[in-house]
C-alpha cells in the first residue's frame, strides 16, 4: 500500500516522514529525487544546461539553485520549462523505487500535489500535513532565512488548503508539541497497518 504524503512549504512533511521512517516504514521522497537529479552529474544537468545556458550550472557542476530560483520565480514560462525537464525524470525514478518496495505500506512524499496531480493515481491514500499559515512562515523564516513576503509568495504559488482537502484521506495537524505529533503518527501507523492487511487479502 502506498501513502502519498503532501503539504505546503514548512508544514512538516520531512518531520513526519522521519517519524514514519523511525517506525521502519520506507520513504520515497520526490524532493530527494529532484536534488539527486540536479546534483553534479545528475541526469537532469545536461538538459538544464541546454535549456537555460551555462549560468544555470554552478562551478561544482550542480544546478545553480539561486540562479534558477530567481529565474522560475519571475517567469511562469521558465518555471514550466524547468518542470517539463524535471517532472518526467522524477516520476520515472519514483516509479522505479516503488517497484522495489517491500513492507506493509510505504510513503511517497510529494510537496507539490494538487487535485489534478497524476501522483494521486499512484497512491492508495493521501495524507495531508498542515499547520497555520503564520506558523509555516515562522518556520521557513527560521530555517531558510527568507523574508515573510517571499514565503507568502511561495505559499500563494502552492495549491490552497481547500484544494488539498478535496483529495486528502487523512489530515495531520502538525502544530505544537512533538509528543502530540508522535502519538498521531502512531495512530495513523496502526490504521495503515490494518488497511494494508485488508488490501493484501
Ligand atoms: P519543505 O516543504 O519546506 O521542505 P517540510 O514540509 O518538509 O518543509 P519540515 O522540514 O519537516 O517541513 O519542517 C519545517 C521546519 O519546521 C523544520 O525546521 C522543522 O524542524 C520545523 N518543525 C516541523 N514540525 C514542527 C513542530 N511541530 N513544532 C516546531 N517546529 C517544527
Automatic annotation (TrEMBL):
One GO MF term: dephospho-CoA kinase activity
Keyword Hydrolase appears in the UniProt entry: no
Compartment annotation: Cytoplasm
Kinase recorded as keyword: yes
Recorded name of the encoding gene: coaE
Pathway named in the protein's UniProt entry: Cofactor biosynthesis; coenzyme A biosynthesis; CoA from (R)-pantothenate: step 5/5
Amino acids binding ATP: 10-15
Organism: Turicimonas muris
Name of the featured protein: Dephospho-CoA kinase
Record function comment: Catalyzes the phosphorylation of the 3'-hydroxyl group of dephosphocoenzyme A to form coenzyme A.
UniProt record similarity statement: Belongs to the CoaE family.
Any one cellular-component term (Gene Ontology): cytoplasm
Enzymatic reactions: 3'-dephospho-CoA + ATP = ADP + CoA + H(+)
InterPro entries for this protein: Depp_CoAkinase (IPR001977), P-loop_NTPase (IPR027417)
Pfam name, any one: CoaE
Alphabetized UniProt keyword annotations: ATP-binding, Coenzyme A biosynthesis, Cytoplasm, Kinase, Nucleotide-binding, Transferase
